[in-house]
Design a protein that fits this description.
five-stranded mixed beta sheet, elongated, 16 strands, binds magnesium ion, 384 residues
Amino acid sequence: MKGAVVRGARGVLAVVGRREPPPKPPDAAALLSALPLPILLLDPEDRFRFANHAAEQFLGISFVQLSQLSLSDLLPPDNPLFRLIEQVRQGEVTIADHDLTLESPRLRKQGITVQGTPLPEDPGAVLLVMQDASAARALDRQLTFRSAARSVTGMAAILAHEVKNPLSGIRGAAQLLESSVSHADRELTVLIRDEADRIRDLVDRMEIFGEKPIDRRAVNIHRVLEHVRRLAQSGFAAHIRFTENYDPSLPPVHGSRDQLVQVTLNLVKNAAESITAAGVPHGEITLTTAFQQGVRLAVPGSGQWMHLPLVVTVRDNGPGIPDDIRPNLFDPFVSSKPSGSGLGLALVAKIVADHGGLIEVDSRPGRTEFRLHLPMLADEPDPN
Ligand SMILES: Nc1ncnc2c1ncn2[C@@H]1O[C@H](COP(=O)(O)OP(=O)(O)OP(=O)(O)O)[C@@H](O)[C@H]1O
Ligand SMILES: [Mg+2]
């Protein structure tokens, strides 16, 4: 018999009249394992009874190991997650908590949303579903940084036109005077020349904010990092120890080599300056690369997806980013340094945005980390 399509009460289309049996439902355990959300099941003593694949990745521990542990082996007793679990057990209701920090020597996760649900057929057991909001928040911040970088774009063009041309005239005039004035006055002409050079350098740095298309090709990010490390160690970071943790199988970044050098050089320079200014006795900068599988971020409102599997991290053991500048860290002219222009991170944000990447920051005393998420070569946006 041929099937007929009818519209049900809720407007759902259904095919009636077919005699074939419905397909067999897939195995529930396989479905749970495939789910990209971390899911954990705790028994009444908080021991791990189940963890899907996403949960193993999230905790960085395999289920074989987890099954020997309880939650208190991973988190200190004052972690708010224990309170949530207790409330779920007492009230026998589903409870969600947002922006939790799960931190211990084994684990460090921030901005986690956790839903706890009791299992009626298994008294005392609690099912935990986790959601890591930090990737979404990183995107949020990046979109803000983009606007910060844009606000400089117009100014850069004006500066280039209105300052650079007269400046070269001033510099030339000072140079001409230099040969004809007395020795005592020569000091002044040198001063004019040096200051003109300083302004020209500043304007040069601003010019990168102009909207120019970038010349993208396959860039070996390890060569970029090596180059920056060598530059740093032969100059401003001679006294600082560098540690490199590179993933040798990392595919090339799709980007501009020179601009990626600028980005990493600015981050390494900031790290070194922070260590030096605070007089940290065993200053250390760690450069890391990693491949992060399967993370795709939706760009709000655009229907676009970003696949940013390459992660480059610059970490230092300096005193951390001062609290008062954190909210505007990537804005131009924000600096805590007496002679800083505050353009370094604005430039970093602009270049990373032009590459379609993201930047995340984590900073506390003794550990500041800038994480770049970059696209790989031939990585087309998801059409869905
Ligand atoms: N690794 C870090 N540790 C501590 N503070 C940092 C770090 N990176 C950046 N900062 C803070 O962010 C501010 C802004 O950095 P940014 O690179 O934009 O400007 P700057 O370093 O002050 O000047 P410029 O880079 O133009 O010489 C710095 O002044 C500093 O206070
Ligand atoms: Mg800087």
